[in-house]
Structures are given as structure tokens and as C-alpha cells.
Amino acid sequence: MTHCARLLQAVVVLSLIAFTSFNGVAQDAPEPAGVDFKAGGNTWADSKVGDFVEYTLGPGPRVKFSVTAVSETGDITFDHIIFNDKGEEVANNSRTRAPAKAPMQGRVPDSIPVTWGAAEYSVGDITLSCTTATWAKEGSTGAIWFCKDLPCGGIVKTSTDGEDSVWLTSFSRDGKKHVKAAVEPTPEPQPEPQPEPEPEPETQPEPQPEPEPQPEPEPQPEPQPGSATISSFGPAITMKLPESVRKEIKDQGMAITRMHVYFDEEKSNEGAVVEYEGMRTEVPVIYAAFKGDECDKELSYPEWLSRGGRYVDLAFEVKTKPGVLDGMGVKIVHSHLQGEVETELSTYDITVPEDGEPWDTLRLRGAQPGINRYTIFVSYTDSTGETTTQKGFSHWVVVQAPPMFEFANTVTATATRSDLGKNTSLEGDVHMDASFLLHHGLDPKDCTLRITRKGKRELNLSSLPPEVRRVITKEKIPPGWQEVAKIDFDAEQDVVSVEESFIKVRFDHAFAASAAVLPATEQWEYQFELQHKDSASPLARWSVKVDLSVAKESDIRNATLKVNATGLDKALEVKFKAK
After folding, report:
1. β-strand 89-97 against 115-123: which pairing, if any?
2. Are strands 577-578 and 404-420 parallel, antiparallel or unpaired?
């Protein structure tokens, strides 16, 4: 018996990072067709592949949820797509959630009384029968409209103080699409022409006694809004590579060097071969890597904006032993990192050149702000007819961008006065609302909002009783900036609300005094800072300033509460009106 055995080490290049996905806790059984919105139910469990909903958000952008898969356990896989106010797609992430954990555009509070009712909402050729929930909290009213016939949650719209903040613009269910018609202005009716009457002789009017002067009725106070929307806000930032990526880049560098040496020195073209008593097995050795010096590595924000289709330039090569593999195919997968979560965005089929011809350079579209990863996959068919896919090296491109998109800063203010016998009381309220889309590479769970303020409140306390004066003087205002709040985005609280990458911030400032403490001065500046765990300094700041000065009681009617805010062209000025 004769035998010969020859073995070369088989080399297959593998990447280290695995895709990460969020999986909800215990699986929820699908809800019945009659969804109980009052109990917190939704229509995600009834949604099918191809169903979608699309909403417009108050500041201008749009968001779309489109179902792509439903598992046997009932989990829903959907694309979460964000468009800016120009209709350009700025984010597209795939998510998988249990129906009870899928995103909703609003939630009914469970700690205050809620009034339930019914209403109708038209979307194109269909009118939806809606269940409505309304409530009041701290001087503000909220409302949510639901519909059991709407997929992907069932929310039709949400509103605050009578103004819609999120509303349905289109949806598809069971393959039929419905689009809400754009509201066009209706021309006002013009009066029909009438013949001119014949002139009548003039008569002298009889003298009438002059009427007694009457005080003019004062209008009731209404919130006066001021707002500004900025397409991008804050200085452009470069995302920091996660430590796992840094390690993988280092490991890849060493492996690429070893593979280059192997292919340059190894003369055989047979790969790894095992022969035994006439039996022969080949294991291909595959080298698939990007040419770092010929690839984009980091793009500035202006450069990224100037590139049609938001493309990146890449160059790569694939080497194999044997030199020609049966049924060889090459794909490049584009994924995006948000915090530690990596989401696959696109797959590109690459043309395999003829033996001896170079591989083409690539221009791939769809890079997003933050960290983009491109990974090569090589497939081939072995002698048994089985197709195998191997993962090659990766390349990362970091796109710089501002930390916020579609930043909207809105302030509303009311100033009222009430006559209480010989005294007059003053009240002022300033509501500060901001909303924005977070940088696509930032994970909201890694972000914090810090609110600080500085200023003064000066009152004349000399006419107050000693016991009252002592209480007020104890509330000394320290000089300089003082921290008011520091809020994690994933914490349960009333100031910051998070829906995927759409963030809302709401904060209030109140003033109350009486004519007995005049002169009075109220001067404050609030500063809001977006902070991130990987940055020592804030990623973005915006501010709101409140200014009021009343010298004496006769000045109250002309006194003005002034509010200035980041992005506003001019200060918001509100006079004190009778309550």
C-alpha cells in the first residue's frame, strides 16, 4: 500500500465584529382584531409585510415605518426611514421588535384622567374612524388619535395645545396605498358686481350729543410664539471609532500583511490540498481586502453634501488559490454603526473580472453621517457542488456631520395682570420647546441633556411683612451658571422625549409678583447642552433669554416680557394683558 499526504495550511480571513440587534423581552401574543387602545394596545401585531405608515413631524421632516418581515413568533422587522423637510432620505435603519415594544408616535399618560371620544380623519380616498384620547396636565392639553384599521401601531396623529405635532400623511395596508391630499388654499368668493345707485341729494345730519368715553375692552392673553428651524445645527463632529473597531483594524493590518506575504511567496496554485490513496480535496485560500491608500477614509460634512448620492470611493482586490474558483461571486455589504449597534443598509454585487484582469474601483452611494463599514464577501462552488461564502476584510469610512438635523427652537410666552383690590398681580410664563433629529451615528442612549441658567430676580421687599420677607430673602440666587437638570435620554422624565432619533425638549420658566414689590427685574439666560459619553465638551448648545423690568405700577400696562432664543431673528415681546 502506498500513500502520499501533503497539507498546506488553509487560510480564511474572517471579520471580528458580529451584527448586533435589539430583542425585546418576553414575546407577546398577537392582539385580537379589536385592539384596545385604552389598555395600551397597538396594531403592530396585525401588520403584514408591505404595510407601511408615513408621518409628518411638526418641524418639517417625515418618518416612515415599513414592514419587511414577520417571524413565526410574531416579531416585526421594519425599516425606519427619515426624510428631511426637502424630502431627501437622511436615514434608513432596519429594526426588529416584538409588537408591544415597537415604536409608537405617542403614548396616553396613565397617571392623569383621560377623556375618550371619536372622530374621523381622511387620507386620500378613505376616511378613518378614530378613537381619540385627550387630557390636561400642568396648564397644557394633549391628544392622540388612534385607528384600528391603520397598520404599524395605529396612531393617526398627536397634538399639544390644539396644534398637531405628528400627523399621518400616507399608509398602505393589504397592498392598497392611501395618500393624504395636500391642502390647497381656496380662493375667497368675490362679490357679484352691482349697479351703482343714483346719487341722492345730501341732507344735513342733525347734531347728536357726544357719547360718553368708554374704556376699550382688553383682549384676553394668548401665547405668543416665536420659532426658528435650522436644517443642521452645531459644529460638525467626527465620530470616535468604538474600541472593538479599533482592535479589528489593528488585527486586520497584521493579517493583511501576512496574507500578502503568503500570496507573493507561495508558488503553488492549488490552495490547501489533501491527497490520500487517490482521493484529493482542495480548500481555497481567499484574500479579499480593500486598498486603504486608494479608499476614502474620512469625509468632511461639506464634501459629503456635495457628492451626488452621498457616494464614497473604494478600491479592493480579491486573490484566490486556486486562481480560478467555480461559480465565484463577490458582494460588498454596507452597514452603519450607531453606538455599538451595527445595521446593514445595502448589498452590492461586484462584477468578477476575467483571470488576470484587475478589479474595478468602486463608487458606492448612500454613505451616512457617522461610521460606515464596507465588508467583502466571496462565494464559490466546491467540487461537491456546494456553495460556500467567506467573509473578507472590512474598510471603515467616517462621515463628519453636525450633531443635529432639522433643529427647531420654539418659544411661547404669556404675560397677564390681575387687579386684586388696590393691588395688581403679575404672572409670566415662558415655554421653551426644541426638537431635532439626532446625528445618525449617535445612539440616544449615549446622550445626555444638561440645562444650566444664570441671572437675577430683584424685588422691592420693603413693604412686605417681616415674616414674608424672611422667607423670600432665604432664596438667594448664586452668581454664575448653575445646573438646573442633567437628563439621560433613556430615562423616564417629562423634559426629553425620544422616538428613535427624533428628540423633543420641553422646559418652562415662570414669574409671579405683585405691584407691592415693584420695582421688579427678571433677567435669566438658559443654556441647553447636548452631551455624549465619548466627548469631554458638549456637541451642541442653544439658549433662551428672558428679560423683564417694571419700575412702578403705572408702567405695568406698557411693560413687556422679552424672550430671545437661538435662531430667532428678533426677540419675542409680550405685553401684560388683563386676565
Report:
1. unpaired
2. parallel
The CA distance from 33 to 537, in Å, is 50
Angstrom distance (rounded) from CA 87 to CA 90:
9
The mean pLDDT of the chain is 82
Which range, 54-58, 109-113, 201-205, 300-304, has the best average confidence (pLDDT)? 300-304
Would the CA dihedral through 383, 387, 393, 395 be positive or negative?
Answer: positive
Of the given ranges (43-57, 380-394, 521-535), which has the lowest mean pLDDT? 380-394
Higher pLDDT pick, 380 / 84: 380
Amino acid identity, residue 343?
Answer: T
How far, in Å, CA of 349 to CA of 519, rounded?
75
Q: What is the DSSP string of 317-328?
A: EEEEESSS-TT-
Which residue pairs, CB below 8 angstroms and at least 24 apart, start in 69-77? 69/96, 71/96, 73/27, 74/27, 74/28, 74/29, 74/30, 74/45, 74/98, 74/99, 75/23, 75/24, 75/27, 75/99, 76/44, 76/45, 76/47, 76/102
Q: Which H helix or E strand runs over 100?
A: none
Pairing between β-strand 52-57 and β-strand 163-173 as defined by DSSP bridges: antiparallel
Distance between CA atoms of residues 539 and 537, nearest Å:
6
Q: pLDDT for 189-210, tens place per residue? A: 444 555 555 555 555 555 555 5
Residues near 74 by beta carbon (within 8 Å), at least 6 away in sequence: 27, 28, 29, 30, 45, 98, 99
DSSP bridge pairs for 83? 62, 89
Note the pLDDT of residue 132: 94
Which residue in 167, 146, 169, 173 sits closest to 46, CA to CA?
173
Cell digits for 288?
479579499
Which residue type is seen at 533?
K
Q: Please provide residue 351's backbone torsions phi and psi, each rounded to the nearest 5 degrees.
A: -70, 125
Give the three-class secondary structure for 46. Answer: helix
**Rounded Cα gap, residues 67 and 69, in angstroms:** 6
Mean pLDDT along residues 68-84? 88
Strand segments, DSSP code E, in 284-421 are 285-290, 298-299, 312-314, 316-321, 329-338, 341-350, 362-364, 370-381, 387-399, 404-420
8 Å CB contact between 399 and 389:
no
Neighbour-count burial of 29, counting CB atoms closer than 10 A to its CB (0-12 exposed, 13-18 middle, 19+ buried) = exposed
Residue 368, CA distances (Å) to 90, 91, 92, 350, 399 in order: 7, 7, 9, 21, 7
- For the chain, first and last CA: distance in Å? 110
Torsion-angle region of 366 (φ positive above 0: left; ψ -120 to 50: alpha; else: beta): left
| Side chain identity, residue 260 | H
Mean pLDDT of 317-326: 87
201 or 167: which carries more pLDDT confidence?
A: 167
Among 85-89, 169-173, 245-249, where is mean pLDDT lowest?
85-89
C-alpha cell at 129: 374612524
pLDDT of 137 reads: 76
Q: What pLDDT does residue 67 have?
A: 94
**b/e map 370-396, b = 16+ CB within 10 Å:** bbbbbbbbbebeeeeeeeeebbbbbbb
